């Protein structure tokens, strides 16, 4: 398994492989639509709702054998695509790996992307904060 830094670098490289916002939009849509639809029935509970996001984003984090588990869903395919990128980098990591990872790495995607409004950024930052608290 790649380190978190290596996995994040690959994710950013994949995102930046597209030079314009239309290509990046399609990439996010593809990622969002390829996400398995398996989720707990109660994921869409208010306890899991990230506040401040333009579109609804639900995130539930936990630990299993000291490794991060993440369930997530969104009404927005753009947010769902970004959430999947974050989850794929973070899921299965130990609490020590999560604690030592520089989440500012994801700003390289957020800051270069005109697809993300302030409210959408708020949602993704809320997801990151939820991951950090585990």
Automatic annotation (TrEMBL):
Query: Which Pfam family is an annotated match for this chain, by its short name?
Result: SufE
Chain segments annotated as coiled-coil in the UniProt record: none
**InterPro entries linked to this entry:** Fe-S_metab-assoc_dom
Taxonomically, the superkingdom here is Bacteria
The UniProt record lists the Fe-S metabolism associated domain at: 14-133
- Family per UniProt? Belongs to the SufE family.
- Name of the protein in its database record: SufE family protein
Which source organism? Treponema parvum
């Amino acid at each position: 398994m790649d380190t978190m830094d290596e996995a994040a670098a690959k994710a950013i490289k994949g995102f930046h492989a597209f030079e314009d916002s239309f290509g990046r939009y399609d990439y996010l849509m593809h990622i969002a639509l390829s996400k398995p639809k398996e989720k707990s029935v109660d994921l869409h509970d208010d306890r899991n709702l990230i506040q401040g996001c333009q579109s609804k984003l639900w995130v539930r984090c936990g630990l299993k054998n000291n490794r991060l588990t993440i369930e997530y869903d969104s009404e927005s395919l753009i947010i769902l695509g970004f959430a999947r990128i974050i989850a794929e980098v973070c899921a299965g990591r130990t609490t020590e790996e999560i604690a030592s990872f520089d989440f500012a790495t994801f700003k390289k995607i957020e800051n270069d992307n005109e697809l993300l409004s302030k409210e959408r950024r708020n949602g993704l930052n809320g997801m990151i904060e939820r991951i950090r608290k585990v």
